[in-house]
Design goal:
16 strands, single chain, alpha+beta
């Protein structure tokens, strides 16, 4: 099974390579960008040396699904996902772009990771055990790992450059970074998006324990948009509802499978680590299952 670990389009200006996405500008349309989801995978802020085949297509398919489902909550930056609907300069690369690319509206990226937590897990659980807080927010005493929070929490982090680590911050700090008006709207939108998505996912047998949204700002419209990927196994913790049990880690459909392996092997956060075939195959299976359960459609590679 082939994989796309990196892209190279000589006739398109490369703007950036992220942990997963390669970002290109389009000479014929300065108001749009081309997002290409590769099959790279990262954990603990480090990109692994080998990819997960078809992962980029799965992420793109899920994002497309969620953008449509949540379109009445918040406008998004998506213009097209079919290569045929993209500018002419994209057509010569259609074999690579098919199923893993998005034509999006260009705008200012707000430098905040808008994380919403509905359950106590991950770094939130670690902080709570130490101080009884999550991102500096005081929580009730006696909560257990994976327990549902009294209400979803907006727990943002800074958006770090590649190779750096995001920093968890108190919600009040967001206003210092992007201004009070934008901060209030980002928090409102993130909580509403999470609540709507969590209700839908629960009806499909999945608990969204937490997720990360990213937002952009269009100055001419004075409007905030939902951007990047949305509610994928890369940006979310998806738990099996039928196996959920408070007080322990959960059976998940996301990168936790990979994170757990890296931790067991003592290589979490180290550069140059490659997955074994078993972990690579198992990770892909988690992503495929998440897609199929959430969308109700059989996964078929494009």
């Amino acid at each position: 099974m082939s994989a796309v670990q990196t892209t190279d389009f000589p006739n398109l200006p490369l703007l950036a390579r992220g942990k997963v996405r390669d970002l290109y500008s389009l000479p014929s349309n300065p108001d749009a960008l081309l997002f290409v989801a590769t099959d790279r995978i990262s954990a603990y802020d480090v990109i692994l040396s080998n990819p997960v085949p078809q992962k980029g297509q799965i992420l793109t398919g899920l994002s497309k699904f969620w953008f449509k489902l949540l379109g009445d909550v918040c406008p998004n930056h998506l213009l097209a996902t079919e290569v045929e609907d993209m500018p002419q300069e994209c057509q010569e690369y259609k074999d690579v772009l098919k199923g893993r690319s998005m034509l999006v509206k260009k705008m200012e990226v707000l430098p905040i990771e808008a994380i919403v937590r509905g359950y106590l897990s991950g770094s939130g659980w670690k902080e709570y055990k130490k101080s009884g807080t999550c991102h500096g927010i005081k929580l009730p005493e006696g909560l257990q790992e994976s327990e549902k929070l009294p209400q979803p929490l907006f727990t943002p982090s800074t958006k770090a450059e590649q190779g750096e680590h995001d920093e968890n911050i108190h919600p009040s700090k967001v206003a210092e970074i992007i201004g009070a008006e934008k901060a209030a709207e980002v928090e409102r939108l993130a909580l509403e998006l999470y609540t709507r998505a969590a209700e839908y996912a629960r009806s499909r047998g999945i608990i969204i324990a937490d997720t990360k949204f990213e937002f952009g700002y269009s100055a001419p419209e004075n409007k905030i948009y939902l951007i990047d990927e949305v509610l994928t196994p890369d940006s979310s913790r998806f738990w099996r509802a039928d196996a959920y049990e408070v007080g322990r880690g959960q059976d998940s459909y996301d990168k936790q499978f990979l994170r757990d392996w890296l931790t067991r092997e003592g290589v979490a956060g180290k550069d140059g680590v490659g997955m074994t075939e078993e972990i690579q195959t198992g990770t892909r299976a988690k992503y495929v299952e998440a897609y199929e359960v959430l969308t109700g459609e059989k996964w078929v590679a494009v």
